[in-house]
Write a structure and sequence with these properties.
Strand order of the largest sheet: 5-6-7-3-8-9
Shape: globular
Number of helices: 8
Low-confidence stretches: 1-5
Helix content: 25-40%
CATH superfamily of one domain: P-loop containing nucleotide triphosphate hydrolases
Structural class: alpha/beta
Strand content: 15-25%
Mean pLDDT: 95
CATH class of one domain: Alpha Beta
Amino acid sequence: MRAPSTDLPIRFEDVTVSAGPLTILDRVSLTLSRGAPTVLVGPNGAGKTTLLRVAMGLVSPTQGRITWGDRESVPPLRRAIVFQRPVMLRRTVSGNVRYALRAAGIPRAELQSRIGEALALVGLDHMAHRPARRLSGGEQQRLALARALARDPAVLFLDEPTASLDPAGTKAVEDVIRVASERDIKIVMSTHDTGEARRLAGEIVLLHRGRVVEASEASTFFNAPQTSEAKKFLAGELLI
């Protein structure tokens, strides 16, 4: 699977998202470009999940503008998202991937080959006929990744994909993320785990109170943070 990149770059221009009196994203300006994974970090409630949803096209800005490949109102045919707690359909492992592909309008003649390739990519090909809801948490997360990757997205958004997984499950998911990135799929993911961010990120975006307070290459962020918020976050202090 090699993904096209026509939805990139994704540009946020002074994007604000509000829900009544609550401001969730506050004048966010950010560019997501091709390359190594972009990892969103920050405390709970910082706006990470909402930023992913806006980038996917699931949430519209209250104010500001977002473009995909310098275009607005682009259907999310080349974007996919995996949520923290993905829903497993009452189907087999392969049936879950088949359903996602048919919903995306993939020709019937391509289904079986795409299903096989996606399950092999995430290491679940030997479980193709097992009921999806009987998988472990880590296996279900990899199946959710298979459903998304089978569609050949240019951009894959992941909302804390290893939350609540044990070390073995975390490593298996991280391995899939690395392979996808090596196949020129842009990964944009959130995580609460700074160790995971160090292992995977090419770029770090630190969010606090709905604002981007620092965005830089991962090596710069971890070795020479520029803002007081970043220094506190890396020191394990609470951002209030």
